[in-house]
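B., you asked whether I could sanity-check this one before it goes into the benchmark set. Here's the sequence:
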Amino acid sequence: MAVIDETCAINIVFHSGMGGDIRGIKDFKQYMSEFCDALPDVHVTIDDMIVEGDKIAMRYTMTGTHKGEIMGIRPTNKKVTDWMIGIDKVVGGKFVESWARSDTLGFMQQLGVVPTPKKEN
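And here's what the prediction gave me:
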């Protein structure tokens, strides 16, 4: 979590698309800690990055094993792969605001909590 202190402003705002915004570095660190506890072997690969002015747009892929509770879902021990798109605003070399969207439905299907539609022949 030390890297968050180095890279994020104390008043960071994170818009995750999963409910209310997360405001402030303390709450952001709590959110990230819970995420990392749920997927302790998480690995993120940046697939694309575009920087213009004070904004960074990224497309990335996250993989991990569901070992802890996340979004009220008990551990399934299933491996998951999720794609994400984020836009970050940087001021003074630190992230001050972030917007992130991911394939939440696909994530839930991989965990087995939402059925995957059957393919028709």
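One thing to flag: The chain has three helices and six strands. Otherwise nothing jumped out at me.
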